[in-house]
Every structure is written in C-alpha cells, then in structure tokens.
Amino acid sequence: MEMLTWGLSFGVMVCVLVVVHEAGHYLAAKAFGIGAPVFSIGIGPPLLRLFHWRGTDFVVSGLPIGGYVKLAGADPFGEEDPDTFVDPSQDFMRRPVWQRFIVMLAGPLMNLVLPYVLLTAVFMTGEPQADNSVGTVIPDTPAARAGIRPGDRVVSVDGQPVEVWNDLLRELDDKVGQPFVLGLERGAAHLDVTLPADAVRLDMDGLTDTEALGVFSSRRSPRIGVSDIDSPAWIAGLRPGDGIVAVDGQPVDSWEEMIAALTPDREHLVKRARAVEGGLEHSEVTLKPTGWVAPRPERDPNPWGLVHASVFVGTVLEGSAAAEAGFQVGDRILEMDGQTIDSWTKVLALGWATTDGVTEQNAVAREITVVLHRAGQTITLHLVPKVQREFFNGVVRYRPIMGVRQYSQTYVNGPQIKKFYPITQAVGRAVEETNLVFGKTFGVLEGLLLGQVKVSEGLGGPVAIFQVAGDSAKEGVFAFVRMMAMISVSLGIVNLLPVPVLDGGQITVYGIEAIRGRPLPLRIRERIQMAGFLVLTAVFLMVTVLDVQRLFQG
C-alpha cells in the first residue's frame, strides 16, 4: 500500500512539474508562431498519444523522468532532419535570437513562478496549523518561570493578535533580545505575563531560537520511562520506551491523559506497545498500588514510578562519544554537569555548551559528567563530545555530538485548525515561503560549487523524489504541495545552469550567437551537446545510485 501511495504521488508530482515546465516552452513558442509538433510527458519513445490539438501531438513517453516540447526546425543539435520539411514561418531556428532565448527561458521561469501560485492557492483554501494552545512547558525555562501552563491559549504578543501557533512564532522573530508580554487565556480568565529579554535568542545558525522560551504546541506522548526497579510500573513489567495505548480499555493519546486515567490506590489494566524486531508487540499488564514512594523529586510525581520517555536514552550511535563512554539504550539521564535533567531540550543545550558556542570545524569540546540511572543503579560517566560536521536544513555546520538520541515519538501534535488567508495575506505568505526555498537552494548550490556540501547531501534524483513525494502525500495535501513547490524551485534553478542539453545551456549558446552575430558552427554545437548529454547522463546515474544507497541506509 505504501509503495502504491509513493507511486501515485510521484506520478502526480512529476506530471505537474513537467507539464508546467514544458507548457512554458510551448506557450512561448506558440506566442511567436513557432511550430511545436510534439508535447511529451516523459522522454524516449512515445507510448501513448493523448490527443492532437492545433498542430501538436500530446503524448506520454517511456521514461517518466522529464518531458520535452519538440520545436519545428530544432533537433537536439539545433538542426532538423534535412529530409523533413519545415514551414519556414514556423521554423524555430529561423527566428531571431531573442525569441529563441525567451522560448528556452520560459520553461524554467514557469517552474520558478509555480510555487507562488501553488502556495497562494493552498493558503487561501486553508492551511492546517497547530492552534494557539500550549501543549508542553519545559521546566526551568522563561515560560515555566513566568507561570505559563499546558492548556493556556496564547492570544497576543505585545498586543498583536495570535490565532495559530505560527502567528506566535512570527511575532517572536521580532522579540530577540527584548522583553515582551504574552496575552493568555486560561479558561475564562485573561492573563498578561511578561517575558525577559533573554527569553528569545538566536541559535547556532543565526535563526530565532524559540525553543529557549520553553513552550511547544506539541504534547508529550504516552511513551514512558521507568527507572526504579521497586516501583509498581517496573514490577508490572513496564520498561523504558514502552508506549501506553490504553488504560482500562480507554485509549490515551497524551501523557496528561494517561496520568489522569491512572487513579491512585486501585488497580489498572494497561495496554502497552513495545518495539520489537519487525514491528510493535502489544500486551496488557496490571498496575497495582504498592505504597511505593519515589526516591527523588519528579517533574510528574505519581505513585506508579512512571517518568516521561523524553529523559531516557532511546538510541546510542555506534562509534560515538556516548558509546565509548558506556551509555546504553534505556538509561535515564539524571544530571549533566551537575544540573538536573528534566527534558531532552536541556540535554541538547548542555551538550552544545561544551564548545562554549564555538561552532567551527576545529572547535574542541570539553569533558562533561553525566549521571545515569540504569535498572536500579546510579552510574556516573565522563565523555567528551565529538565536534562533527552536520548538513542540516540545507546548511553545513559543526557542533558537538554526544551520540545519544531520545526515544522516537515522545511528542504528539496538539489540536489543529485550518487558517484561511485572504488573497493579499496568502500572496505574502507564498512569497515568504518561496523566498526561503530560493535562499536554501542557492545556498546548497554554492556549497556544492565550493566543495563545502557533499554531492550525496546536495543532490537528489528520481528515487529521492519518489520517496519524498510519497512521504509528503501521507502528511496531507498541504505538505504535498509544499514539497512540490520546493522541487519546482530546484528544477527551475538547475535548468538555468549553463550546462549543454539543459535550457541554460541553450540560452548560453544563443547568448554567444547574439554576441558573435551568427550561430556557432554546427560541429561545435554537436560536440557541446554530446558532451553535455554525457555529463548529464553520468550525473543522473550517480544521483540515482546515491538515492538508492540513502533509501537502504534509512
């Protein structure tokens, strides 16, 4: 079923992107009266003729990795077969250079314009977004100290209204290094809380670090950790990483729901899901009250010994500093550098602090002391994080890596609503998002040219598109359209590169022709096109192999 979803999503995405691109060439050619005998979705031999319209055969060809518009008088080397008659009035090669230039430019431009149109449309039809309710408050953060609680609704920032969570994030972009007031609704009451100047700051990439504030729209999932072997939870057979599915036959979707359902002083039948090789194993256990008392203060005190999984080690990376120091899956992190750990956010912050904010390649991390709890024993370990190169969100950076990850799915999405934007705001949001994609795409290209970004990181081929199309489709229409917009930008920019066979290569040739005042000799054009074809084929094969490797490596 998943392969079917991926296949259909890939087909739709490629079809839209190819049709839009080739429609640019086709419409520009028709506007100048240039003949276009074939409009093909896919390349290679035609398999299916869809219809014939105004002198053009619209067909589907064998390889679904692109498309083409055959222009009258223009073969791949700029010359038509001498045995084929071409009406001089429709001959592409007989047209002025500026017309041929525009026809070639029109395809990539359509890809670059498409994201603005797509995103504007989906913003107007309603973007699914997290509502303005607080799902999680991290202890010992500005939000926690200000008294913000899960369930509060953020309705304003310094008087500016907030309808959804993204509104809050955008308002906080302007609050870096300055105090601000959040307007909250708690039940029927309205509260104004003042946050200090350090509540919002820039992260290591120079972006607004709203995590420092300590609030999230997502909620903690009912994925548990258990560290005390004398607790009722451990005695019942619950272990770190188990997910609680139901309590007494009633499904639970969040940590708060689970805790509320576990009434003290009576037995409960708990259904759990445990990750095993090949999937999930479901079973039921009985939680019995025993009068157990927690040996230490807990963020979520309860008589069962349940601790949220977000302070437990879910993965230890092979060869990492944590693996060498002796970390194990299921360890609970109690302290780091003498500070109590009550969230994974604090684990990351203390790990990053080992380089004192230095993020260069030659940065050296200092040793950090970590206190763990493992199956009833308290263990103290020492490790020096390894400063490693990381390609994240289109940017190469260096940061200290301990080599541990929290359990997956420790958080779940909070309530969502659809926000409908009027056309003026929708256009503004579309421009904002598309411009971010442009910036990231140019950043990756620059990194590739300068050797800072690896080819395996910066390039993707048909297999990668196949996978991301399916994954985004499973997340919903908006995620699918957003991914299509990102790929469309990349396709437009890549096609403008001065590489023979690509539109940018043709544009370059016509630019040279305009400067020389006459076309390049046919022999030179043939050699340029052949060289470009070979290079493009080699790149295609390379990225396909890399795609397959990434797919199997997960």
Could you name the key traits of this structure?
Pdz3 Domain, 28 strands, 4-stranded antiparallel β-sheet, alpha+beta, 14 helices, about 550 residues, 4 domains
Secondary-structure map with pairings?
Elements: H1 2-31, E1 38-53, E2 56-70, H2 97-125, E3 127-130, E4 136-137, H3 142-145, E5 153-157, E6 160-161, H4 165-172, E7 180-186, E8 189-195, E9 201-202, E10 208-209, E11 215-216, E12 219-220, E13 224-225, H5 232-236, E14 243-247, E15 250-251, H6 255-261, E16 268-276, E17 279-287, E18 307-308, E19 313-316, H7 321-325, E20 332-336, E21 339-340, H8 344-352, E22 368-374, E23 377-383, E24 386-392, E25 395-401, E26 404-406, E27 411-412, E28 416-419, H9 423-450, H10 455-458, H11 462-475, H12 477-495, H13 503-516, H14 522-553
Antiparallel strand pairs: 1-2, 3-28, 4-11, 5-6, 5-7, 7-8, 9-10, 12-27, 13-18, 14-15, 14-16, 16-17, 19-26, 20-21, 20-22, 22-23, 24-25
Helix pairs in contact: 1-2, 1-11, 1-12, 2-9, 2-12, 2-13, 9-12, 11-12, 11-14
